Amino acid sequence: MTEWYFVWVEGLRGPAPQKWSSDGLWGQVGRQDVIVRFALSDEEAHLPLDELARRHPIPDGK
């Protein structure tokens, strides 16, 4: 079963949202530009990036 993750990575213009599947995660695990990764429920896995960004904002570090 494929698991999905919502990920914030450092982009050229600041944090950028991405959606990763467990099928392709092996190539992404060692990336140094990952800010935070959220495991998604089956329902969330079908949502667009803008909705996921609202539900899972970047932690403010406090």
Tally of discrete structural domains: 1
What share of residues are in beta strands?
A: 35-45%
Rg, Å, rounded = 11 Å
**What is the end-to-end distance?**
35 Å
Listing every helix as H and every strand as E from the N terminus to the C terminus, the arrangement reads EEEH
Order of strands in the sheet with the most strands?
A: 2-1-3
The poorly predicted ranges are: none
Shape: globular
Sheet with the most strands? Answer: 3 strands, antiparallel
Number of helices: 1
Helix percentage range: 10-25%
* Extended strand count: 3
Structural class, by secondary structure, is mainly beta
Query: Would you tell me the overall average pLDDT?
Result: 88
Characterization of this structure:
With 62 residues, the chain is mainly beta. It has one domain (4-55). Helix content is 11%, strand content 35%. It contains one helix and three strands. The protein has one helix at 49-55, and strands at 4-11, 14-21, 34-39. It has a three-stranded antiparallel β-sheet with strand order 2-1-3, covered by helices on one side. A hairpin with a 2-residue loop joins strand 1 and strand 2. The radius of gyration is 11 Å and the shape is globular.
